[in-house]
Design brief:
By secondary structure, the protein is an all-alpha fold. The protein has helices spanning about 15-20, 35-40, 50-125.
Length: about 130
Amino acid sequence: MEALPSCNSDWSENNITADIKQTPLEENGKNTPKSILKRSLDADWSRYVPRKLKEPMSKKLKETIPTALGAIKEAYYKLKVEYLKGELEELKRREEREMRENKRREDEHTKKNLLLDLDRKLQANK
């Protein structure tokens, strides 16, 4: 490693480039400007993820996604069943209400007919 120039020394072009070349960016060729540019332009980001991280994540996802989908389907079906139960109860109540209403109308109609028959008989007896 070249010694850094003192304050009194001349800063030549060679000294500046020597300082730049010794920066930690170029150690082991990992973070060279060229490699940084290549990584930023490369669309396949997953190849930069270490293999140790890929495998457990994929295993976890393989286990988690079907479990989550199963839970979502189960919740959906439970809600659907509850909704259909509510609809069925509503239909039963509506049918009972209609039956009561029809019976009430029928009873009123028979009452009117009986009253009319009695009134005719009374008119005929007079």
